[in-house]
Write a structure and sequence with these properties.
Blueprint lengths: L1 E4 L2 E6 L4 E2 L7 H4 E2 L3 E3 L11 E8 L1 H8 L3 E2 L9 E8 L7 E8 L9 E7 L3 H10 L3 E2 L1 H18 L5 H4 L6
Antiparallel strand pairs: 1-2, 2-3, 4-5, 5-8, 6-10, 6-11, 7-8, 8-9, 9-10
Length: about 170
């Protein structure tokens, strides 16, 4: 028996009231507060999405807000993404509202980190904030903050003096 959801077919279990998603995941388990569906563990590739902004938070906070991400080995993602949440509309799981991922990191960051938010347009940032209550950062804000951090580190370094800038070291 199959049940069409927006043109897709799902194998039904029991009385047919809940479609079985993938690998035994239940439909209810993938819904969070009825506002979105975490489809990270399904074989859904979020095509057509691109970087829209950032969120500065921890891995644990994202897991608490969005559920578990899809964890990948460097071979699965060309080493570019090691953890990714794919968040879809609660009724149409083929409509990806946004993605959250760590981009080109050597390991999954567990400390405070700028996570990338992907989507089809800037509305993705709005959806992310509505669902998580976390503040997003635009590319311009992110760049300004990173540059301010670099400038602050440079200013905290000792300045070159006439005696230190002309020192030549020979081995």
């Amino acid at each position: 028996m199959t049940h069409p959801i927006d043109g897709q077919q799902y194998t039904l279990i029991g009385d047919g009231s809940t479609p079985s998603i993938a690998r035994g995941d239940s439909w209810e388990a993938s819904l969070v507060s009825g506002r979105f569906t975490n489809v990270s563990k399904l074989d859904i590739f979020p095509s057509g999405t691109s970087l829209q902004g950032y969120v500065k938070t921890t891995y644990k906070t994202l897991v608490n807000k969005l559920g578990e991400p899809k964890l990948m080995t460097p071979n699965e993602s060309d080493g570019k993404v090691l953890a990714e949440w794919v968040i879809a509309h609660p009724v149409n799981i083929n409509y990806v509202m946004f993605t959250v991922y760590c981009w080109k990191t050597e390991r999954i960051p567990h400390d405070l980190h700028y996570w990338h938010i992907g989507g089809r347009n800037q509305n993705s940032l709005y959806c992310f904030t509505e669902i998580t209550d976390l503040k997003t950062t635009s590319y311009e804000e992110y760049s300004a903050e990173v540059l301010a951090g670099i400038k602050a580190r440079r200013e905290s370094q000792p300045a070159a003096t006439p005696t230190t800038q002309d020192v030549e070291v020979c081995f």
